[in-house]
């Protein structure tokens, strides 16, 4: 679930509420329903993520049967934000065994969405891509209503990238 949330830039609720029938295992397209603002959109996963989803689907049928949710909880519904948040913190602590938990920076599942967006922006800046053209794709993929929602992620970039970006080509919007 965490890998899917990160690799598609999903909101945590979108990831945990995916319906199995909304995944096209041949194309890797996932229909996200009931997204923020009760909107729908389609995201497409990479080939390796599609293979992981296929493998997980075979396993989930063993323990979940015909449950409509792709990531069903023990009671048949979806996991709460609190539960997946705790799992994520446990994974973070397990990935950093040399650091005591009280010294680890705090993390949230939503941070995976931020990393997705800033990684895409960083890759585009470093490759010299036309950021103005690419932002529209990122906006649609992430399910943002406005470009300003997508521009929010620019302030998360390191200063060295911000100074190298071609920001004068952006539409006249306030960059936060």
Low-confidence stretches: 172-176
**How is the biggest beta sheet arranged?**
3 strands, antiparallel
CATH class of the largest domain: Mainly Alpha
CATH topology call of the largest domain: hpI Integrase, Chain A
Radius of gyration: 18 Å
Instruction: Identify the CATH homologous superfamily of the largest domain.
Output: Intergrase catalytic core
Q: What class would the helix/strand composition place it in? A: mainly alpha
What is the CATH architecture term of the largest domain?
A: Orthogonal Bundle
User: Could you tell me the number of beta strands?
Assistant: 3
Q: Secondary-structure blueprint of this entry?
A:
Elements: H1 2-8, H2 12-16, E1 23-24, E2 29-35, E3 39-44, H3 47-64, H4 81-95, H5 111-127, H6 131-142, H7 147-151, H8 159-164
Antiparallel strand pairs: 1-2, 2-3
Helix pairs in contact: 1-5, 5-6
């Amino acid at each position: 679930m965490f890998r899917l949330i990160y690799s598609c830039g999903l909101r945590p609720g979108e990831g945990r509420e995916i319906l199995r029938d909304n995944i096209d295992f041949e194309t890797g397209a996932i229909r996200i329903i009931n997204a923020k603002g009760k909107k729908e959109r389609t995201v497409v996963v990479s080939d390796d993520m599609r293979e992981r989803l296929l493998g997980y689907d075979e396993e989930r049928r063993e323990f979940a049967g015909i449950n409509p949710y792709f990531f069903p909880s023990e009671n048949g519904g979806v996991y709460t934000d609190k539960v997946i948040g705790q799992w994520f913190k446990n994974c973070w602590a397990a990935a950093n065994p040399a650091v005591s938990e009280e010294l680890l920076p705090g993390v949230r599942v939503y941070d995976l969405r931020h990393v997705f967006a800033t990684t895409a922006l960083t890759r585009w800046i470093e490759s010299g891509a036309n950021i103005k053209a690419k932002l529209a794709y990122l906006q649609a993929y992430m399910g943002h209503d406005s470009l300003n929602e997508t521009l929010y992620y620019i302030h998360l970039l390191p200063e060295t990238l911000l100074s190298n970006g071609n920001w004068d080509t952006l539409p006249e919007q306030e960059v936060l």
